[in-house]
Design brief:
The protein is an all-alpha fold and 340 residues long. The chain contains 14 helices and no strands. Helix content is 61%, strand content 0%. Helix 7 runs antiparallel to helix 12. 34% of the residues are buried.
Length: 340
Amino acid sequence: MSSALAPIQAVYDITLQPIGFLSWLGASVSWLDLLGAFRLAVVLRQLREGTHKEYIRTADGDSSGRPGKDRAPPEHRGRVRDIATTLVMVYGGEAVIGPWLGFQPSFLVDGVIPMTFLAAHALVELLPSVPDATLALETFTAIIDAFTRAMLLCDFIPKIVTRHISPAVSESPWTLLLTALITANAGPFFTFSFSLLQPTPVSLTTPPELLPYGWTSTDLWIAPLVSGLYATLTHAQPFFAELHTLLFTFFSPLGLAHMSYPSLGKDPVVESATVAVVDPETARAVCVLVMATAFVTRTVKNFGPGVLWDAPSTTQEHVKDKQHTKLAQRTHGGKKTKTQ
């Protein structure tokens, strides 16, 4: 199993290396940080341009039935609003969860990563255009999203919870899962709630998560699932160590618990065996594989041939998934270097 995950670990070995000339300037920025920053910048520009076109188009084919000419003219976008949108997307979750867990959000401690995202935003805005979302492009970026999201869910979140000074927090599985849910989703939640990507003035609106079937969004449930999986494999908390043992007892007779076998003796007995703790790098690679599968599946559903899924594009569930496909934020790679 570990050999199958070796390519994923090799990608991390390369992309987590600091960029040489930036390190010389005293800025610790990895290639994964840079990739995530440009990924987000392109996504946000795609969304801004897409919502603008949707807003001004005529009534022909307009499902809302409102002709564009009858609507208020779009608001002239200020650059400060776009900058604020980027920062809300990246750090909205940290800003919410930080006061409750008693840690300083990374953007208050070091300005290198925030400036990296803003620089990527400025460079992308200088481009004449950005590519439209296609099946091939979104499939590739879905894999990138899995790598960058894993840094948040497997490195950043488990550490801030398990290293908490209070045992009631550090050993609470509920705290870990809730922290993952909020940190990963608060940024998009606020972005949609305040209509920051719309061509209209800032206003409150119902975010996709609160629409019918919004809870089924991949981005919403994948966060606690992956953090829980990582905690189970690495025994980050006593609860997850016991859960790992329980799952091992159930799956090992079926031959589906290969990563937990190394700690067994030469004559393994499942009932009395000590379940192996998976090393953090291998556990993170497993999580990348899980997320890549989920993200690619969603991409094929949204951008692939319609014959694969009979999901009408007018349903709230489909609309939400298409929005979150473009907002799959894979921008937290820099948080690893700032929290270790």
